[in-house]
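Hi L.,

You mentioned the student needs an example of a multi-chain input paired with its predicted structure. This one should do, with 815 residues in total across all chains.
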Amino acid sequence: MWTLLAMAWRNVRRNRRRTAITLAAVIIGVGAVIAIRGVLNGLQAGITRASAEGALGAIQVHRAGYLDNVLSTPLSMDFPIDEKMLDTIRGVPGVRAVTPRIQFAGSLTISVPPDREMPEALFFTAIAVDPKTELLVCPDRPTLYTEGTRFDDEHLVMGDALAKSLGAKVGDEVVLLAPDRDGSLNGALSHVGGAMHAMLPGEPKVAVVPLHLAQELLRMDGRATELAVAVKDLRDIDDVKARLAKAVGPEWEVHTWLEVMPERRTIMQLQDGIGVIVSFVFLVLMLLGVANTTLMAVLERTREVGTMMSLGLTRAQVLALFLLEALVMGLWGAAGGLGLAAAFTAYFSKGGLTFRPPSATRAFDVLPYLSPRFTTVVLLIAVLGAVLFSLYPAWRASRLRPVEALAGR
Amino acid sequence: MFRLLPLAARNVFRSKARTALTVGMLFLGVMMSLTLSGFVLGVGETMVAEAIQGRVGALEVHRKGYFEERDKSPLKLDLEQGGPLEAKLKAAPHVTGVTPRIVFMGLLTNGSRGTMVLATAVDPSTVFQALPQADKYLDGEYLQPGDGTGVIVSTAMGHALALQKGTPVMMQAQAQNGRQNALDLELRATMSQSNPLESKRAITVPLPFAQSLLGMEGRVTEYVVAVDDLDHLDATAAAIRESLGPDYEVHTWAELRPPLRDMRYIQRVVLGAVSLVFLIIAVFGVANTMLMSVMERTREIGTMLAVGMTRAQIAALFLLEAAVQAVIGASLGVVVATTVVKAAASRGGFWVSMGQDGGVQQVMPTLLPAAVVIAVVAATVGALGATVSPALRAARLRPVEALTAV
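Structure written out for the whole complex:
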């Protein structure tokens, strides 16, 4: 066996040009497959992070039935912010932090000095958050704010579409109007603290307001409609969700951010699907290249096979020799491809691959990374596939008749 | 050159196994990249087609300044319904349909709770001339001419306000004169499309309803214009701009929905890159077989050189052989990809389910003519490029040595 391996090794190196061509195909194939997955990993981690740590929170807890009605921002499905309940949630293993919120809709305008024309009131939807504890759950939320934004009990942050439509500037006084739980309209005053980028354009006009202000405006002192929960490790999110659902009981509904934003889940599944198809086709094309090379080697070396057989090599050994050559090629190609993909990811994981998703208003950086499981599977497919795809040519070589092969027929 | 072509064609069919390999690689490369692009680009193309034929329209005409202020949906910048403006639009070249609309914001209430909506008021008697797919994804019946109180909402909105067909709802909005006004509506249908680029807060109401709610009798905020062929879009837009003068603005769907345009662009770039890798791998395969072919036919090359073929002709012969194989492989790839895509499209494409609200999105596989041309040209050029080195090798053989080769 070892002799055969040494021979295979030497044979692969014998026809350098052909080996180089085949290896190049395998390296590009394996490298592209692993690198594409790496970019997808980075992209999806970016989406996950922006959603779970920047806007929604990893897990959301509502009164049962809330999410079905979320578009109408039902205030009647509210609850008192109860320290005992918060402690129960914090006590669930894997939970990092929890914060209360209110989602509501209303209209707002800015009050301006008499010499400026008062802009028309605009409808908007708002998320009211506690300026301090929100940061424990969504530490990335401020990254959406424009520079110099102030968000505290006295200041709210407007989506940039809203700020632009109103011509609002930092420090302007804002008049908010919103129907409370009973449907009667109330007003409250606040100030513009800054603007934030919308993740998606076409989002209705949005604002982030301090929880305190919303509770006053909506007459919901000490109450909330949503609890956002951060988890210690996003990979355990489903386990944490299950434990959390058990801990709070059936009167509550517990959803991960993927369930709150099912479109994003669909988009990520589509990405995964296309990634798998592309990888599959790359690998098949590349392995056909290996089969091609082995077939040519067999055709070209007919006389050599005849010589080896007349010297006493068994048919099984001839078969093994050609398979080993394919194996050596597969190993080299897989190693080269891994190196290529690793270099690519390492380079871009420092600077980031600037990417502008079709529906986002601003570019964000994708930090590609390799997933060990996927990489291992691809490398195994490349190496074993090279052997598998060479079975037919190798078998053909092993069926040659020594006399005819020696005559080169 | 033309004498070489039949020779090259005959050589290609001489070694069947090798030709099968080369042609097979190119076939797979072209077929795979075209099929994949057909399905992936289908997502974008379907969304664009739906936007043009169902929601946005090919062109929209507003009063000057509307576009800047559109986040406020300003009712003051309005247009006359019917009259000379509409006549001018209909008279423009390539225009196949014109329909007026009002876009406004308001509050939709079911008695116990309400939510902000973005309403589009359409004229049910002309809407299908400009937006033939306006009723796609509809669960229920579209607004009929003469219906003054019907409303269509998204499935998610229907859930949120607990609406059933026939449920009365109230719409509240600020009229053109600044006063708040409210009128009753009845649910006619729900829209199950769940395109992430479209708002779930979009509702559709009849034009007469909006005009009386907003105090805008005989007025609208925009005209939607359909054209017969999207290739004429820019020319039509320019012609309309010319005939309407500076008091109006004309925008194409791409200007109205930049995310859609960007999505299409990104899909094309990504697919271009993927197809490139497909082709590179396929071309390596060609390089390999051609190299093999040259080595195997050393004696033959020697003979050809001995009977007076020039070195240039030898190189040309091998390049021609590669070209013949590339054309055969690429054509087969195009045929199979076209068949697969057509078959999928004739069955209505795919319905992708988006989320829990029962939302769906149709995906109609589409093969762009440009993609076909690019794939065939790239495969041929790639195969030729891969053959340059083996062909030169063949051309540089010395006749005497080549003739004695085994």
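You could point out the following to them. The mean pLDDT of chain A is 87. Chain A touches chain B through 65 residues (CB under 8 Å).

Best wishes,
N.
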